[in-house]
TrEMBL record:
Species in which this protein is naturally found: Prunus avium (Cherry)
Cellular component terms per the entry's GO annotation: apoplast
Domain PA: 383-471
Subtilisin-like protease fibronectin type-III domain span: 665-760
Name of the protein in its database record: Subtilisin-like protease SBT3.4 isoform X1
Single GO term (MF): serine-type endopeptidase activity
Compartment(s): Secreted, Extracellular space, Apoplast
Keywords from the named record: Apoplast, Hydrolase, Protease, Secreted, Serine protease, Signal
Hydrolase recorded as keyword: yes
GO biological process, one term: response to symbiotic fungus
UniProt keyword Protease present: yes
Active site: 145, 220, 550
Family of this protein: Belongs to the peptidase S8 family.
Length: 773
């Protein structure tokens, strides 16, 4: 029999439900709203959250219901919360003191890890380059990589017309790849090249993880191909994150697959095979080539056939094929950028306006945000440890890559560790050690980086920076029974997230030719959602998130395909110029672009070239800095290569002028002076690709410690004058050795701003030469 108090409780509950409506009814009529309260009034997250619950409770009737309706509590960058509210509740909240505004939640339609929306290419906007170019229809992108998984829905041919008439390639059958079945109007060609690798190393003994065909056993090539030209696929996510519709940069472009990298010997790509792929691709009629491939430091020269990319790309560019290559993943150290030939578009990797935050709540009620990729479930309050005693090596204790854990000490607990290496292998090995010891989660303190990788078997491993890691460690050391709660990550997009150059992205200056700026451009390359091979250990349902300049490269290749469709007569140099001169230096949101590293700093041209790619701007650049084959030959002469070496590269007898030309006069959309002592005058020319009648006037941001002047200061174009020359004179104010300083030169006509980066280092005391007396 019920007690009087319980009966009273039931009656009270019935009265409340009758007055407020059933909870289920409220939920059915509710919508998520954001209640914005402005700047935080204090720094106590727990107190802010309590305040938010109290405020919501005044409208919905109880703290219990407020807790159920609360979606998020914003308590770090600003104050506010998101909650499920009816229209009348939202109206009442908006009228309360201290509430700035209440707005309905809007649904963002995500596409290839949001990167295309981030770059201004929403498929819903009819005015952007995506639609003006018919999504790249008729353009052929050749991908030199690990092959393709043709059954992926990302390569469906729905809505595509006939194969472009200029295609002369073939689709080759092989191991589990049937040309008749697996090639279609999307994958119009597929070849594979391994003879160079076999000739170098012999035939590998174990082919259990490979296919002697264009089929992709690794997943890398499938990922890059779908990023460049994947078809629309709805309802895709990775571990529940980044949900939405994905596509490639040029969804109607066609793919020609050239498998040159193999999932054996640690993943190898022979230069001989690469050169053969270039050779075939040029013949086949591709318009764009995408290579997420690099070598290693030190680099080979441009005329060294061991660098099959530089050599092959020269021939491709000479025939009007734009070649896009990865800058490599050896950052943030200087002089690590690869694929440095000036005829290549070299791509750095940036983040975008999306992250996957997860909350870490300590037993002290302090909550920190980390980044992670795991599906859950939530880990309730579990014991938290930092392995610094228990007889462990004091030099290895707490270091992620050296974890050796006692099962009795770790079972059922979350482990905190620190690492300075930040390699994925070290994080995954640490998570494996924790899991093997019976732990339930891992918190890794490391250099800040947005690039994430899931740990094996969906184990909860959360990344934080050293500051948060240190604060968690202080908490562990300050209490006898430290506890922690770990929540699965959420997808967060838009402001206030700003783009950064990724920690791993290789940096300039160019170690082969310091006077040639590299990288040229940056594009999203962090946590990119795209198709993969089912054999990819990290894949889920045929899709995966990967990070690297390998991922940023096909972003640019896809946009190049759109530019080719709009401007079929533009040269590769003109396309490169359009990308560089219109790039964002402050990001699409207008926020400054930082470069991840130690310490984080504002990005400069050695981090991102001209900036982050701006596709819609590149479609209408106004002016371009163009270069033909003769210009590249002049560059080789300036580099000091002998006539026979240059003749071998260009395929014709070449004789350099007696007076060696200056590399600085190469008509690039950038100026880099590695050693400024005396005033230098540099030549450039620009071609008008905008309105015939136009006047461009110059704006100069001189690098610190320099004076920059132009002749002339204005360029006047008309129907008969499409190309004009000008000179730039740069002199040093400070007579001392310095590092590089950066500035820019811009031409503007009121509609276009054509900006090139300036990079200058003054050097009055030359490096010591042991051969000098």
């Amino acid at each position: 029999m019920s007690s009087p108090s319980s009966v009273l409780a039931i009656l009270c509950l019935l009265c409340f439900l009758n007055g407020q409506g059933m909870i289920a009814k409220v939920a059915a009529n509710s919508q998520v709203h954001i209640v914005y309260l402005g700047e935080r009034q204090h720094d106590n997250p727990k107190l802010l959250t309590d305040t938010h619950h109290d405020l919501l409770a005044t409208i919905v009737g109880s703290k219990e219901l407020a807790s159920e309706l609360m979606v998020y509590s914003y308590r770090h960058g600003f104050s506010g919360f998101a909650a499920k509210l009816t229209e009348s509740q939202a109206q009442k909240l908006s009228e309360l003191p201290g509430v700035v505004r209440v707005i309905p939640n809007s649904l963002h339609k995500l596409q290839t890890t949001r990167s295309w929306d981030f770059l201004g290419l929403s498929s819903q906007s009819p005015s952007n380059i995506l639609h003006k170019s018919s999504m790249g229809d008729g353009v052929i992108i050749g991908v030199l990589d690990t092959g393709i998984w043709p059954e992926s829905e990302s390569f469906n041919e729905k809505g595509l017309g006939p194969v472009p008439s200029h295609w002369k390639g073939v689709c080759e059958s092989g191991d589990r790849f049937n040309a008749t079945i697996h090639c279609n109007r999307k994958i119009i060609g597929a070849r594979w090249f391994i003879d160079g690798l076999v000739a170098e190393y012999g035939k590998p003994l174990n082919w259990s993880t490979e296919f002697l065909s264009s089929r992709d056993a690794h997943g890398h090539g499938t990922h890059t191909s779908s990023t460049a030209a994947g078809s629309f696929v709805t309802n895709v996510s990775y571990k529940g994150l980044g949900h939405g519709t994905i596509k490639g940069g040029a969804p109607n472009a066609r793919l020609a697959i050239y498998k040159v990298c193999w999932n054996v010997l640690g993943g190898q790509c022979s230069s001989a095979d690469i050169l053969k792929a270039f050779d075939e691709a040029i013949h086949d009629g591709v318009d764009v080539l995408s290579l997420s491939i690099g070598s290693s430091i030190p680099l080979f020269s441009e005329v060294d056939e061991r660098d099959g990319i530089a050599t092959g790309s020269f021939h491709a560019v000479a025939r009007g094929i734009t070649v896009v290559c990865a800058a490599a993943n050896d950052g943030p150290s200087a002089e690590t950028v690869q694929n440095t030939a000036p005829w290549i578009i070299t791509v750095a990797a940036s983040t975008m306006d999306r992250s996957f935050p997860t909350s870490i709540t300590l037993g002290s009620n302090k909550t920190f945000l980390g980044l992670a990729m795991f599906t859950g479930p939530e880990i309730g309050f579990a014991s938290l440890i930092y392995p610094e005693s228990e007889g462990l090596d004091p030099n290895a204790a707490g270091v992620c890559q050296f974890l050796s854990l006692n099962k009795t000490m770790v079972a059922g607990k979350v482990v905190l560790c620190f690492t300075t290496v930040s390699l994925r292998t070290d994080i995954t090995s640490a998570s494996a050690a924790v899991k093997e010891a019976g732990g339930v989660g891992l918190i890794v303190a490391k250099n800040p980086s947005d690039a994430l990788y899931p740990c094996n078997e969906d184990f909860p491993c959360i990344e934080v920076d050293y500051e948060i890691g240190t604060r968690i460690l202080f908490y562990i050391r300050s209490t006898r029974s430290p506890l922690v709660k770990l929540r699965p990550p959420k997808t967060f997009i838009g402001k206030p997230l700003s783009a950064k150059v990724a920690y791993f992205s290789s940096r300039g200056p160019n170690s082969i030719t310091p006077a040639i700026l590299k990288p040229d451009i940056a594009a999203p390359g962090v946590n990119i959602l795209a198709a993969t091979s089912p054999l990819d250990a990290l894949g889920e349902g045929g899709y995966v998130m990967h990070s690297g300049t390998s991922m940023s490269t096909p972003h640019v290749a896809g946009i190049v395909a759109l530019l080719k469709a709009m401007h079929p007569n533009w040269s590769p140099a003109a396309i490169k110029s359009a990308l560089v001169t219109t790039a964002w230096r402050n990001g699409p949101s207008g926020l400054p672009i930082f470069a991840e590293g130690s310490p984080q700093k504002l990005a400069n041209p050695f981090d991102f070239g001209g900036g982050i790619m701006n596709p819609n701007g590149a479609a209408d650049p106004g002016l371009v800095y163009d270069i033909g084959k003769a210009g590249y030959m002049q560059y080789l002469c300036a580099r000091g290569y002998n006539n026979s070496a240059i003749s071998r590269l260009v395929g014709q007898n070449t004789k350099c002028p007696i007076k060696k030309p200056s590399i600085l006069d190469m008509n690039l959309p950038s100026i880099t002076i590695p050693s400024l002592k005396n005033p230098i005058t540099i030549k450039r020319s620009v071609t008008n690709v905008g309105a015939p009648e136009s006047i461009y006037r110059a704006t100069i941001e001189p690098p610190f410690g320099t004076i920059v002047s132009l002749n002339p200061n204005a360029l006047v174009f008309n129907s008969t004058v499409r190309k004009l020359d000008f000179t730039i004179t740069i002199s040093a104010i400070h007579r001392m050795n310095t590092g590089y300083y950066f500035g820019s030169l811009s031409w503007a006509d009121g509609v276009h701003v054509v900006r090139i980066p300036l990079s200058v280092r003054t050097e009055f005391l030359q490096p010591y030469d042991a051969n000098d007396d």
